[in-house]
Sequence to fold (319 residues):
Amino acid sequence: MNTLDQLKQMTVVVADTGDIQAMKAYSPQDATTNPSLLLASAQLPEYRHLIDETIRDVDLDLANPQSDLAPLLEALAVRFGMEILNIIPGRVSVEVDAGLSFDVNATVETAQRLIQAFETKGISRDRILIKIASTWEGIKAAEILEKQDIHCNLTLLFSLPQAIAAAEANVTLISPFVGRILDWHLAKTGKTQIPAEEDPGVLSVRTIYHYYKRFGYQTEIMGASFRNMEEIIQLAGCDLLTISPNLLEDLSKDTHHLERILSPEMAQEMDIKRLALDENAFRWAMNEDAMATEKLAEGIRRFRSDLDKLEDFLRQEKA
Fold:
């Protein structure tokens, strides 16, 4: 049995891609998308028909630089999401515009529109996770949405305080980023590599996992943003792991015995202090964590930038 098949026995494997062909190849349970992945997929010839059909259905004046393309971007996210759901048995994550990361009401309204669009097309809301950046405002928006049975995936999560606030808000799922944490530490220390068992991104997810299982939170943990196969192996047993196609291929070709690293039983035996976080404590904790603050801000800027690039691409397609 290869390493990918072994991993699937203890962890839900999620495809971190907008490439539908890759999903067919590796049979993940769930899939996740973001603006960067949609931008990459939109430029592939095999998905041109999805772009053309969505542009036709939304019927905006793309030649007018003043036209608001938000309805088209949302429709495109729904269209790709539906294509993905035709392949996978589980859920797809669809992201709210990162530019709304500090606006509770706008985030809630966008999520409601996305869910309504899926349901109009016959897709149950239970198969959709709304991706929202793990700002204080994003977490508060997710708390409102969860009470409406709109399930959320808190993304761009780099710290235990973010994870605790999400769990206290009864969010369905969080996506702690492993590789981007490693990137930050490599840049700050000048090192070229850190062993996987000492990888600060790996250790961050382990800390969150142990905290959640120790105190009985139901929020699922989905490790994300991996730089190498070893990081994935060190998180075997995590609730979910979202993995890029190239690393899925590496795992499928590897045949080493995979040991379970994370388990609820192990966490129950740990001596962990429970933390209380109101808004002030959350913001102070983020202020004290340079890595989490910088990577959250960078991630929001990057996702918004890729949405801008996607808008430019769509305008050029119409031209």
Q: What stands out?
A: The chain is about 55% helix and 10% strand. The mean pLDDT is 94. The first strand starts at residue 12 and ends at 16. Residues 290-318 form the longest helix (29 residues).
